[in-house]
Amino acid sequence: MMFKLSSTILKDIRILFRDKLGLIFMFIMPIILAIVITAVQNSTFEILNTNTVPTLLCNRDTGEAGKQMELAINKVGMFNLKQVTPNISEKEIANRMHAKDAVVAIVIPSNFTQKLKQKSEETAKKALKNFGMSIDSMHVTDNDSVQPVTVFYHPVLQESFRRSIQGALKSSLQMVQNREVLKSLYFSLNETALPDSLENELMNNQLAINEIPISRDGSRNIPNATQHNIPAWTIFAMFFVVISLGSSVVREKLNGSFVRLKTLPTNYLIALISKQLTYLLVTFIQALVIFSIGIWLFPFMGLPRLNIPTDIAGVIIVTLICGWCAVSYAIMIGVFAKTQEQANGIGAVSIVLMAAVGGLLVPSFAMPSSFQYILKASPLHWCLQSYYGLFLEGGKLRDVILNILPLLGITLLIQLITLYGLKRKNLI
């Protein structure tokens, strides 16, 4: 029995090394995806956290509020501001943005200070009136609203960026408006201007926000793009063994290997066990290679380093279970496919669909409520949740057992479907 199994494993290894295209799909493609997508996402995070959004700033206002608005926008820490002349036209702004000189342009209107002061006086007047205080000293000449600050954006800018920019500008505008309201209230009560020291103390005395990522081990390490992407694309690589393994099963059906095995004192189940063991080793090597890239290569590329969980045994067990599920799925595709083209096409498309539904391409919490039940049918979802429990939440094997059990159930179901297909085709 062991001699037959070892001989079959040796045969499968030789076939595997002859499959150059399959090796590319199993190793080269996921490595490139992991590097490229991690780099893109990491640069996205840097854009949101540093002054890297190229922005044209056109301040047509000559008053104090316009200057304060400039300072507030610059203080946000999100924009790389490029000052332009106040008389620049909208067409010239559009031309500079089309030339990729900037992706955002902010225009402060010429009457910004005047209208903002009038609006602030109205607000102060209403506040004092509610307190039952005299408002004779306040004089409002115009009830027109403030001309809005205009924001031009390049069409390539995604909605998430636009919302972030809009929130930052609203925060800046609110700060400037609150300052003017405060000045109006102080002048109405004291008939003197608000001292600069008191103004700074009142405006800058804000409570800080303490951000703490939750973790099971009590650590405070902030997850980075590498921690998110390396586990995800490792799973993707594992399931793409369907290109090589599925085709191998189909080839053996077409070239008569099944028939020859029936004439020998052996069973095709030994061949299936051999393929599972061989490709399980392949998936484990895939994980080692991609994890190693995240640990040693990423820092040299300027990307965040992959932090391996403290529970190494848990990582190994989760990797083996994920690999077993991937191998089982690939064999099932090979058993039911009639040609290699079917195995490759159906296998690749189904993996991409399960990755999309399972949360690898789009976070599961961002999916519509109707997809919350569908994603649980994807084995890639449970693989990803198991890895995230270890890599992002700092958990141990016992903490992800509720994710491993559904994955084992799906794997066993795939195995049963495969056995049913083999018996139906009289292959065993």
Structure write-up:
This protein is mainly alpha-helical and about 425 residues long. The protein folds into two domains: about 250 residues, no CATH class; about 150 residues, 3-Layer(aba) Sandwich (abc type-2 transporter like fold). Helix content is about 65%, strand content about 5%. The chain contains 16 helices and four strands. Helix 3 links the parallel strand 1 and strand 2. Helix 2 packs antiparallel against helix 8. It is elongated. The model has no long low-confidence stretch (mean pLDDT about 80).
Largest sheet: 4 strands, mixed
Shape: elongated
Report helical residue fraction.
Answer: 55-70%
Proportion of beta-strand residues: under 5%
In DSSP terms, counting alpha (H) and pi (I) runs of 4 or more, how many helices? Answer: 16
Low-pLDDT windows of residues: none
Descriptive tags:
mainly alpha, 4-stranded mixed sheet, 2 domains, 65% helix, single chain, 5% strand
Could you give the topology of this structure?
Blueprint: H1 2-18, H2 20-49, E1 53-59, H3 64-75, E2 79-83, H4 90-98, E3 104-108, H5 112-130, E4 150-153, H6 159-190, H7 196-204, H8 225-239, H9 242-254, H10 257-262, H11 268-300, H12 312-336, H13 340-358, H14 371-374, H15 379-391, H16 401-424
Parallel strand pairs: 1-2, 1-3
Antiparallel strand pairs: 3-4
Helix pairs in contact: 1-11, 2-8, 2-11, 3-6, 5-6, 8-11, 8-15, 9-12, 9-13, 11-12, 12-13, 12-15, 12-16, 13-15, 15-16
